[in-house]
Structure to design on (205 residues):
């Protein structure tokens, strides 16, 4: 079954695109928490388009991280309007209880964006399995145990052919690639901001 509405693309179905996630340049690129989580949830749908149950661990890991951040946001909405504020306030509130929500979900986002960026523009004739395997080695692999690595390796090998994947995103290949490029650029910009913030002393404990 197609992952897009008649005449449209996959991105027409998304609850929110990263393009529409506010990032306030006047406040050190503060990223709105609610909208970011909605866009991240929409991203997990791409693993369904990839079509293999082997990607279930990737989707599950990302979904769990989204839930952790949303749970913390719901506990203290005033202190969690932006992702940066959520981290700062949680550091101050829970530093001794060691209950800091896991924002390492950015690794999963980084992994996905790198794989799709490589496949879309850097290696436009490369099969998805190669692109995802390369991205895995650059992002998640170093954090995984010898038990987890084979599971993710199986997921990379189970990627569909690139022509089938892009076909599931829409009938108009030119439009699909244009919208995917725009979506990826917005995701990359926000992941870059978050990674730079998480590397600062104020985001560590």
């Amino acid at each position: 079954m197609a992952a897009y509405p008649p005449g449209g693309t996959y991105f027409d179905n998304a609850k929110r695109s990263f393009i529409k996630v506010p990032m306030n340049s006047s406040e050190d690129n503060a990223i709105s928490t609610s909208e970011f989580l909605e866009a991240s949830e929409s991203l997990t749908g791409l693993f369904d388009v990839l079509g293999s149950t082997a990607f279930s661990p990737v989707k599950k890991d990302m979904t769990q991280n989204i839930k952790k951040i949303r749970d913390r946001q719901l506990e203290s909405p005033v202190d969690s309007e932006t992702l940066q504020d959520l981290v700062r306030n949680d550091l101050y509130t829970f530093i001794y209880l060691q209950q800091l929500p896991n924002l390492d979900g950015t690794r999963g986002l980084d992994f996905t964006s790198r794989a799709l960026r490589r496949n879309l523009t850097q290696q436009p004739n490369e099969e998805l399995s190669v692109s995802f395997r390369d991205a895995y080695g650059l992002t998640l692999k170093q954090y995984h145990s010898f038990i987890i690595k084979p599971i993710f390796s199986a997921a990379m090998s189970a990627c569909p052919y690139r022509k089938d994947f892009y076909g599931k995103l829409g009938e108009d290949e030119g439009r699909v690639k244009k919208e995917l490029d725009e979506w990826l650029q917005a995701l990359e910009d926000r992941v870059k901001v978050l990674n730079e913030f998480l590397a600062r002393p104020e985001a560590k404990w």
